[in-house]
Amino acid sequence: MSKTIILSNRLPLQINITKEKLQVTPSVGGLATGLKSFHREGDSIWIGWSGLTEEEIPVNLKAEIKVRAREDACITVSFTAEEMDGFYYGFSNRSIWPLFHYFTEYTEWESWQWEMYKKVNQKYADSVIEHYEEGDKIWVHDYQLLLVPNMIREQRPNATIGFFNHIPFPSYEVFRTMPWREEILNGMLGADLIGFHTYDYERHFLSSVRRILRRPVEFNEVTLANRVVKVDSFPMGIDYEKFEQTALKHHEISEDQETELQQRLNFHRKKSPDSQLILSIDRLDYTKGIANRIRAFEYFLEKYPEYIGKVRLVMLAVPSRSDVPQYQLLKKEIDELVGRINGKFATVSWIPIWYFFRSMPFENLIDLYTSCNIALLTPIRDGMNLVAKEYIATRTNQTGVLILSEMAGASHEMNEALIINPNNFEQIADAILQAIKMPKEEQIRRNTLLQKRLKRYNVVRWATDFMKALDKTKENQPSFKAI
Ligand code: GDG
């Protein structure tokens, strides 16, 4: 029977070794959390990196890791520390990530990192070939693996290959600055179907293909010498039911069963009923607009000082890519900002920003979602932003206000949120005030519409739609004359 081969940089599980023993935890991040439910329900295998380099795995545990991964239908690909350096911390996160998010001043173009990117992409492609059987469908994910579709195509010309990009695709004027732009586009065009979160990313990609490769593009199809590649948008959904059900369970528990985090979060509200908690959750990444958000919150307290002592920003920043210098600088900037603002506004019984720099277990994440009546998400650029969708899914009594940046892909489907420009502090401060004052009936009206949409277009529907469209690409291939 044919299967789906999912391929992504990281597996949905993270393997650690403590005292010669394996520890397996779920991976954090948009792609892993989103696709996991599709993987669990379908007939698929998932190929990716375990999180450990070859040097970090003792010889006697190599086989055990493979067996443990297999239990979750996962296959590990292994890399040396040097390969990871050039491919992941290098080209993926110092070249493609900043470029695709319009942070051109952060891009580095190092030939050795590009060579490593090609080498590692080839390793992923080879692993797919090893597990591929005639009739299988291959679904490659994200910006770390842009060359893989064509590397597979070269070895299996008739394979059915889909590619989904989880981050924005920049405009042609930005993309053209990449030294290896032709190779990247040709790599992606190895797929039969290329998916993006929004129509804008799709449009930008097609424009680059037309202008850089001079390939004929008609509507959303690219014609190559012997086949047609379809490009389309598929806005990713979440596992709505999981978030909704877990939130419902949280509301059912009695006060003495509350976690310490819940008690702390609720204490603040019970003590002063008109107090408000504003939540933000992201990986610590310069694209997420965390520094802007803190400054905008400071501006809010200055502009509306009557809320000093009443409104608190609860901020979870998950450590990410800490080997890349920009992330270290950002961490420093945020630590200083939080310290300065807390020092400036704190009273003996209140601090304005409650800052966590760590990853939290899923249950605690739900505590945060359900306890905070406002969510403030201000990315400068964001492919989609699943946190916005998860927040709405956990608001089971339909109260709560989402303030969301127009630069997040999610804003295209979430018009009922308060949509802001992340660089406009005046607008953010006023949106916070509007959220605080918003009548319950209005909150319920907005969230009911949002929930209806998110429930219908959940992650399984997203994946199913993509796979159906992928099947269709084979049915609709025009017959090309042999050249
Ligand atoms: C990329 C794109 C796109 C976060 N902290 C914890 C935790 N999380 C989970 C959230 C959410 C996910 O991580 C973050 O997803 P996002 O979509 O917000 O962001 P990225 O990681 O940047 O994802 C993004 C996404 O891919 C999907 O295509 O939306 O634009 O950049 O699911 O819940 N989970 C746990 N503990 C945490 O501390 N358990």
UniProtKB/TrEMBL annotation:
One GO BP annotation of this record: trehalose biosynthetic process
GO annotations of cellular component type: cytosol
GO terms assigned for molecular function: alpha,alpha-trehalose-phosphate synthase (UDP-forming) activity; trehalose-phosphatase activity
Keyword Ribonucleoprotein: no
Keyword vocabulary terms for this entry: Glycosyltransferase, Hydrolase, Transferase
UniProt-listed Enzyme Commission number(s): 2.4.1.15, 3.1.3.12
Keyword presence, Glycosyltransferase: yes
Family: Belongs to the glycosyltransferase 20 family.
Name of the protein described by the UniProt record: Trehalose 6-phosphatase
Classification of source organism: Bacteria, Pseudomonadati, Bacteroidota, Flavobacteriia, Flavobacteriales
Range of the intact protein held here: 1 to 483 of 737
